[in-house]
């Protein structure tokens, strides 16, 4: 019996290159907790998000919403003090990924010193 929610690849392996961006995002977890953040990169298969509070943990189901876009579901695959990696439940169409990278240019994230 297999668990479909287990990571298919390790952190160091990617199915494809991620595109860098800086899009405001709202992440909701299975408890409906709302967390603000910035999506830092994206591919068809997942994304990396800088969160305003470190509350998401690996294995947790989340929903990601960007302004003007429909929401996507996925699973947190890794987390550290400020960022999470999310694997989408279903891959995004390449045109959507390209569009997001074009309309949300990269932003510099400054950490508190």
From TrEMBL:
Domain PilZ: 13-98
Domain of life: Bacteria
InterPro entries per UniProt: PilZ_domain (IPR009875)
Protein name: PilZ domain-containing protein
Native species: Novosphingobium indicum
Lineage: Bacteria, Pseudomonadati, Pseudomonadota, Alphaproteobacteria, Sphingomonadales
């Amino acid at each position: 019996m297999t668990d479909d929610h287990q990571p298919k690849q390790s952190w160091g392996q990617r199915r494809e290159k991620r595109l860098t961006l800086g899009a405001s995002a709202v992440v909701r977890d299975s408890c409906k907790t709302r967390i603000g953040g910035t999506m830092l990169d994206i591919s068809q298969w997942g994304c990396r998000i800088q969160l305003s509070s470190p509350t998401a943990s690996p294995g947790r189901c989340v929903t990601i919403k960007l302004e003007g876009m429909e929401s996507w579901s996925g699973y947190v695959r890794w987390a550290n003090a400020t960022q999470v990696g999310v694997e989408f439940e279903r891959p995004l169409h390449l045109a959507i990924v390209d569009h997001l990278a074009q309309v949300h240019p990269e932003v510099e994230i400054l950490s508190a010193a």
